[in-house]
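S1.2 Input.
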Amino acid sequence: MNKIILLTLICHIHMGVIAQTKKASSGSSTKYVYAMFTISKPVLSHTDAMTIGDKYYPETNNVKWKDVVFVSEIKEITGFNEDKKYKFLDDATDGFQQTPKYSLLNQEFELAVFKQIPYKEQSSYDVYKPKIKQNDCLVFKTYKEASLSRSNVIYGNK
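S1.3 Output.
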């Protein structure tokens, strides 16, 4: 009788290990991800003063916003889940804001302001900075799928 109980206990323990292994392996699937950022950048629209017929139009300066898209590198994540997705997005966003690409977006605008706006008025344009409008984490089962998708975004075939 003790042998039957011991055999049953071993069987339950073994089945539990198998079930835990299946759960772990299904939860630890590898995914390939990249982040895609939609950035709204300020663009200075300048119109010189002009006269058309007998009507005078003064010089005007307007700030318009233009959306541009940037993507991160593809990263392999094992055990991908919602927490890892948001951690990846936070890290990618923080990293992107430190890149020369991001600071260049603002430098283009600052240069236009410097060239076209009188010195005394330039400080009023300091409030215009690039803004991350949207950030997404795109998730793929294979590196190939991620690479093709990323290439489509980069080269405009989206």
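S1.4 Remarks. Strands lie at 30-47, 50-52, 55-57, 60-71, 75-78, 131-140.
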